[in-house]
TrEMBL record:
Single GO biological process annotation from the record: response to antibiotic
Organism of derivation: Psychrobacillus lasiicapitis
MF-aspect GO terms: N-acyltransferase activity
The keyword Transferase appears for this protein: yes
Protein name as it appears in the record: Acetyltransferase
Domain N-acetyltransferase: 8-175
Pfam families (alphabetical): Acetyltransf_8
Keywords: Antibiotic resistance, Transferase
SUPFAM superfamilies, per the entry: Acyl-CoA N-acyltransferases (Nat) (SSF55729)
Domain of life: Bacteria
Length: 183
């Protein structure tokens, strides 16, 4: 286990989790917000996207009360993304993260906020991150509210940044800075 906060825990993804990812990423309710309903996953696609990849991404399963309910990944932001985001000249330790709750019954219960807060704390303390960034699509207001409750601030609009359901969508670059802890 990487970290735990009350009933929430995050552990590294294991091969035994592939069927969970395939289940979650073939559910239209989840796909509406993550990957797109036109992009369902089967076991092969899960293997290709989540396993046997050495790209510096920590891929994890989120559990609540010992039940797997979602997925989170975090990673040092590479130079190409730093340039896109406007951080090319910043020498701080910069992490990105992406997540979803795959078990719809766990939505709207504050677990997403607990997950984001706990992960940010882990990244700041254990990975020595100075900033944590995400790029949610602008229309995903529920996710953005969750991130803002967790201390993230909108930095800039990223026009046509992500292909979702057949069209490129605008995203917000949002960030949490270490300064937020002392302000």
């Amino acid at each position: 286990m990487l970290f735990q906060n009350d009933k929430l825990s995050v552990r590294l993804l294991g091969q035994q989790d592939s069927s969970l990812l395939a289940k979650w990423l073939s559910n239209p309710a989840v796909l509406e917000f993550y990957e797109g309903r036109d992009n369902p996953f089967d076991d092969n696609k899960v293997q290709e996207k989540f396993y046997n990849r050495e790209n510096g991404v920590d891929r994890c399963i989120v559990e609540f009360d010992n039940t797997p309910i979602g997925y989170i990944q975090f990673y040092p932001v590479d130079l190409d993304e730093r340039k896109l985001y406007g951080y090319a000249d910043i020498t701080e330790v910069l992490y990105g993260m992406d997540q979803f709750i795959g078990e719809v019954a766990y939505w709207n219960k504050g677990i997403g906020t607990l997950l984001v807060n706990s992960t940010v704390k882990f990244l700041l303390e254990q990975k020595k991150a100075d900033r944590v960034v995400m790029d949610p699509q602008t229309w995903n207001e529920r996710a953005i509210r969750c991130y803002e409750k967790s201390g993230f601030k909108k930095v800039k609009l990223l026009p046509k940044n992500e292909l979702h359901e057949g069209e490129y969508r605008d995203c917000w670059l949002i960030e949490y800075t270490k300064r937020e802890l002392t302000d």
